Amino acid sequence: MVDIKKRQILVTGGSGFIGSHLLKNLIEKKI
Q: 7, 8, 13, 24: which is deepest, by most CB within 10 A?
């Protein structure tokens, strides 16, 4: 149940602050 809620937050906040923050971390780690 927690995983589903987390996924919903990621999907709904994908274009929001949380989504951009996660994308930044992924990009920085890849570089």
A: 13
- Length of the chain in terms of residues written: 31
Tell me the whole-structure pTM to 2 decimals: 0.36
Q: CA 23, 21, 29 angle in degrees (round to 5)?
A: 50
Q: Mind giving me the DSSP string for the chain? A: -HHHHHHHHHHHTTTSHHHHHHHHHHHHHH-
1-31 per-position pLDDT tens digit: 678 777 766 666 555 666 677 778 888 887 6
12-15's contacts with Cβ under 8 Å and 24+ in sequence apart are none
